[in-house]
Amino acid sequence: MKILVCLKQVPHQDARLDVNGDGTWIKEDGIKFEINSYDTYALEEALRIKDAGEAEVVVASIGPDRVTQALRTALGMGADRAVHVNDAACQGSDALGIAKTLAAIAKEESPDLILMGLMSDDGNASAVPPMVAELVGMPSATAVVATERSEGNIRVERELEGGAVEVVDVPTPCLLAVQSGLNQVRYASLKGIMAAKKKPLDVKTAADLGVADAVGTAGAKVKIEKIYQPLRGEGAEILSGSTDEIVSSLMNKIKELGLL
Amino acid sequence: MSVTRSGLSEEREQILDAADRYAREQLAPLAPRMDEEEWWPDDAFRALGKEGFLGVTVPPELGGAGLDLFASGLVCQAFGRWNHAFALSWIAHENLCLNNILRNANDEQRERFIPGLCDGSAIGCLSLTEPGAGSDALGSMASTAKRDGDEYVLNGRKMFITNGSVADLTLLYAKTEPGKGAHGISAFVIEMASPGVSVTQKLVKMGFRGSQTTELAFEDVRVPVANRIGAENEGVVCVMSGLDLERALIAPICVGVAERALELTIEFARTREQFGEPIGNFQMIQSRIADMHALVETARTYNYHCLAQLNDLPPGQGGRGWAHKLSATSILYAANSMNQVVDHAVQVHGGNGYIWETEINRLFRATKLLEIGAGTTEVRKLIIAQELLKN
Question: pLDDT tens-digit profile of A40-91?
């Protein structure tokens, strides 16, 4: 069995984000990056299938040199090999451009299962997984919170609004986009990090994958017009002080408004 | 080897990141209760062993990760950021006990003791300091081990022993020939469950609380000759090279604490408003933050240099010469820098920084210990100056 896990590298959860000069993305200089949290659950799910039996886990990601570290971390956690699309031409791709690139990798790899996170911590669009599934012609399920595998099928539980759960049978090969909290994500062990040095990491360009026309700003059908922090509006009051002071002041305000 | 912006190789940065993630998620939540109650998390070492954070320098065939001293330092730095008390216990186990046994024991002893210390089923500690033997640990040592057939009979008391009440094994130094001073000392591994071993005091500390610091008593404890590490009367080699490595490895705790203090202070300066604006806009706050940054950067960089130099220190080396001076300089500077950083940090935090239960106050109370343990600041200066001035 072969499992393809698609990862995105995103700004670290502690990184301070500032909008860049032309207001179309964040300043990436000097901030730390990490694997998108949703994708770590996808990777863990793949590694659990590998631990339970015979499976090769291939991780794939798109982005500049820094993405190597995300892929090496995934290899350190137990993935077998990595594919890195490192091509300046991919800069500025929209979701469809990314999906076409990942789909091209999927077509080369012919996996039995594609796992990815439901969304990315930075872009938050949830667009790529269903697009990849459509482009490679696989059935898919999103917001997956539990899986149970049987011959030729995966029964998945999907999280619905309000906490309800939907149970769906998805025939394999298929693509699953997983929700956070699906599992407990393992740590990259020190031994694993050492072992990862010897694992293959293939570097490809968009042209290698035949998607040169689909990627980058040129290939994008969706263009980011502007990114900005909402301005502090009237009527909002930011409470300051120690935690105790804030809680006390908040309680007083609630009482003043007669809500308690 | 490509080098990242931190100055670390990619692989070393991954090690630091992996340990950081573990510490942030698993060790940081333990810190408030450890600090408040001097509480010890019983399961933490087994969990660490399972995740491969014990036996960093131990070859894989004995259950370790097969990495070097530098990697150990990075793990310590990450643990120091999120739970410095636990980092101290980790060092006592990992370096003072485990790495010393690895470097100085014979093959049979390594196979007997090391796998359990790597998987976390056994916790280790080091028993060197005594009630009357601190900076003059070797000269004033009163503990004795008298040979009796295939055993030694051990008597004595050991003081300020980190992990003393939770350890399964201790690496202990005692005089086997009291008349020969430092050259009459031998090293032993003692199982803490042996008859005659007792914990006579659990000491309550100002900082690093939760790391279990104890006084131990040894009364007619019978130790098999097979548990003596190295030759009789040659324990001084083991203890002195071990102390150099210990100094190199506690410096990253200072770096970790200082990094976290800086991070908290920057966040506070950005969000705390006075006179209608964030206090980070005021130049006197900025001055402190700039000083803190310079101290953190220089302490970290110098410690990395020290770890890199000591990485290949052969067993039996150290305790004199360049390694002695280098490790003493690293911890002298790191501990002093950390003290300055946490002092600035509490000042920026104002009243909030003086409240016991805040994280920054916990970090502030980490001062002094690392200027005292593993050789006081004064001893470190003696080592440095004596090496510089000798002919």
Answer: 999 999 999 999 988 999 999 999 999 999 999 999 999 999 999 999 999 9
Asked whether the beta carbons of A77 and A47 are under 8 A apart, the reply is yes
B66 at A interface, C-beta within 8 A: yes
CA atoms of A200 and B233, how far apart (whole Å): 51
Beta-strand pair B213-224/B151-162: antiparallel
Two tokens, residue A98: 């990314």
State the complex-level ipTM: 0.80
pLDDT by residue (tens digit) across A188-241? Answer: 889 899 889 899 999 999 999 999 999 999 999 998 899 988 887 777 788 888
Catalytic residue among B94, B215, B234, B246: B246
Any idea what DSSP says for residue A182? Answer: S
Interface with chain B: mutation pick from A193, A203, A246, highest number of B CBs within 10 Å: A193
As a CATH number, domain B10-123 is: 1.10.540.10
Q: Is B215 a catalytic residue?
A: no
Residue of B nearest to A72 (CA): B14
Tokens, residue A205: 């360009």
Instruction: Name the residue type at position A42.
Output: A
Distance, in Å, from the CA atom of A81 to the CA atom of A61, rounded to the nearest integer, reads 12
Tokens at residue B256, please?
Answer: 């970790």
Domain extents in chain B: 10-123, 126-229, 235-390
Task: Note whether B348 and B289 are within 8 A (CB).
Answer: yes
CA distance A212 to A205: 8
- A192 and B71 within 8 Å at the Cβ level: the answer is no
What type of residue is A102? Answer: L
DSSP state of B375: S
- The pTM score is 0.88
CA distances from residue B218 to A101, B100, B223 in whole angstroms, order as listed: 68, 21, 11
Of A69, A191, A192, the CB nearest to B10: A69
Domain B235-390 has CATH 1.20.1250.20: no
Q: Does domain B126-229 have CATH number 1.20.1070.10?
A: no
